[in-house]
Write a structure and sequence with these properties.
Structural class: alpha+beta
Helix content: 10-25%
Strand content: 25-35%
Largest sheet: 5 strands, mixed
Number of strands: 10
Number of helices: 3
CATH topology of the largest domain: Immunoglobulin-like
CATH superfamily of the largest domain: Immunoglobulins
Shape: elongated
Order of helices and strands: EEEEEEEEEHHHE
Strand order of the largest sheet: 1-5-2-9-10
Radius of gyration: 22 Å
């Protein structure tokens, strides 16, 4: 258990936050940094639980991995209260039935590219370019027409980089 307190704060009551990083395939072998009040306090591995002791009062908690992270959440620690948080990535989320890449789209694009090669309209080297462009087009269309903006990896790694991870009270 980690404790964050200065000498003046040690006389105050302390509460705890317990963070459970759920088991996910995405980022399985990477650690996520946990920040409390803009100070890194702990690193958490896949399917790990960490408890952090904090002084009473308002705190800002966030998770970061490389240039991506979670939105800041404000928690209020009162007395010996313990708050439980769940940490995970929205990228290929186990709880979501929607994956980031559509297998159906990739297979259809591959079949179109193969038929163009078979008919002699295209060289084999262009097949990978057509598949990549098909995936990017699908991602872009999904971004614009979906209410759930977490489906596009291009969005998550650029404009939505602060939404790549989630940190929710459980």
């Amino acid at each position: 258990m980690l404790s964050i307190a200065t000498n003046n704060q040690e006389k105050m009551e302390k509460g705890k936050i317990t963070i459970h990083r759920i088991d996910q395939f995405a980022n399985r072998y990477r650690t996520i940094n946990i920040f409390v009040d803009n100070t890194q306090v702990v690193k958490i591995k896949n399917n790990e639980i960490k408890t952090i002791e904090l002084t009473s009062g308002e705190h800002i908690v966030a998770a970061k991995i490389d240039w991506c992270g979670s939105p800041d959440i404000h928690i209020n620690i009162e007395g010996n209260k313990e708050i439980f948080l769940e940490l995970g990535s929205v990228f290929l989320n186990n709880k979501s039935k929607k994956g980031v890449f559509s297998t159906k789209l990739i297979v259809q694009t591959l079949l179109v590219a193969m038929s163009l090669i078979w008919d002699g309209y295209m060289k084999t080297s262009y097949m990978f370019l057509i598949i990549a462009l098909g995936i990017i087009l699908w991602q872009t269309i999904e971004f614009y027409f979906s209410k759930d903006k977490t489906g596009s990896i291009f969005y998550l790694l650029t404009l939505g980089r602060k939404e790549y991870l989630y940190l929710n009270e459980s």
